[in-house]
């Protein structure tokens, strides 16, 4: 009769996503369970409305109920619905409607006692056990195991025998019994949250154990707490009704749902209707609690994985259909050539068409055996562009226009099923953090052979030999030993090599590399770049390399697309762009890069670019870089198209590109203090620096960060 608490739902059992962003979690702990989620599904909306009506009607019952609960009408005993008694009467002629609503608040309120005791005690014990170490955990775990082994029904009946039918007390004791199950559910999550790096950081900062539990662990448990509360609430109601059914409800003549169902069951043959109203109200209330729990328990978008949710996939399918209908049929582009045309990516519209655009009209081509660098500051849309090539945009973000042509298909309009055939086999991904690609639970060998078998249909032995070969190919000397190790047993550089081997396991023709060297030290960076260069040369595959680092671009890339605020501002051959940049943003990136300045003419101070990349919602319709540009003027206050830059087949998005080229201007490293806010000044007043003559151009001086 007394159930253990249901296991945590799949989306809340794994705390790592929730654990990654504790600050965001704390900030959104309230927001997370607020309106948007509650009203996201029709079932939860109906549940909220039903519970609200029930509670309001019950609390105001004395004001509007047509009869008192004990009023008897012997002229209408066991009647069905009539004008006088809308839901009929019981065996004593009492009005069912009045009795149902009069007893609702008591039933719901006492069920809440169970929730508060079970969740409060279970969660507190779990946080205590997770924080206090093995000994305390052992003691608490043993005690809860004993509690779980006790026959709950017998205990409840014993309590009733000792203290009578004191419903609030019985429900509190029920809560204590359920708290043991709740403790088991919460302990694993609390321990995992306790082992997060930000908890270590908080300890280093001197935050107390209690502070850590309340500020860092509890918010991470919030999802499970809400879901479990809803389930326990429903269980509490059912148990309460069950007790009343067997005669341990509130004293007669006080009404209770269980008591009414029991009365109805005695007249089930001569007045079957009697069972319907109370049974339906109980069932609806239990269903409502579960629907609300399900809705609130959905994982928040902010911490969701890259892989889209089912709802996001449905939205994407719609967007895909729209794009497919709008885009012209792909022409027969050359084999293994990637051709991205006017790609736009945006946050899914909120229904009123307010989806923010994150990438606008990006175009580039990648020939087989070549490397394209996508370069730009953080937040310029490089990752969104790269992930759209694999159909791996995060939940809530989709391709909103354009084409991604690959071997005669438009990947922008491909369904998830189509993309499953492309990912890994034709297009693969390596990410900044190699550990994202590797599962800590399995050996390198297992993960590699599983991928090879899945993608290439090989047998076990053949796949193992192939895995060995792949590790050797990525420069791992003792490959046989590495195959037997777990990811945590190898270094970051080694892990990135393994991740590259994993990406190569399906023999892709295009590799999307999202900042693959950023997390590595300089020596290892050079090795990984050299490895990628060798792979491109040997296998003829092409690479889209996302990077902040112009050194990486110079080292590896044949072509570059410089991105700023979601659009390509300059593209072309790497040597043209590095030797002869045309866009002020490219000039600025080069001026700010220590590797791009030769030792001989290295300036005393490297240049900076004032301000930050604007948020996508703030992108102007004019030149997006104008607000930060040293050369901006009134001519820049118009939408700027990509036009031939005059250097090879490159394109540039700047109305002053030709003027800058003719004048031979450089981006200036200024000595203006960071707190000094400057406006556009006339040419010639610019601070001294390595610039060539700024004659004839309006120049924007920049803030200089002295930090
Ligand atoms: N899931 C998301 N929902 C909404 N906006 C997002 C999401 N992910 C990223 N963005 C926004 O999209 C814009 C482009 O982000 P993106 O990650 O592509 O930039 P990036 O150039 O790759 O930066 P970084 O080098 O830091 O990865 C940013 O303004 C970012 O805040």
From TrEMBL:
The chain crosses the membrane at residues 38-65, 100-131, 225-248. It comes from the Bacteria. Residues 687-707 are annotated as: Disordered. This is Dipeptide/oligopeptide/nickel ABC transporter ATP-binding protein. Keywords: ATP-binding, Cell membrane, Membrane, Nucleotide-binding, Transmembrane, Transmembrane helix, Transport. PROSITE patterns: ABC_TM1, ABC_TRANSPORTER_1, ABC_TRANSPORTER_2. Residues 687-696 have a biased composition (Low complexity). It is found in: Cell membrane; Membrane. Residues 338-590 form the ABC transporter domain. Residues 697-707 have a biased composition (Basic and acidic residues). It comes from Pseudarthrobacter polychromogenes. Its main location: membrane. GO terms for molecular function: ATP binding. It is a multi-pass membrane protein; Peripheral membrane protein.
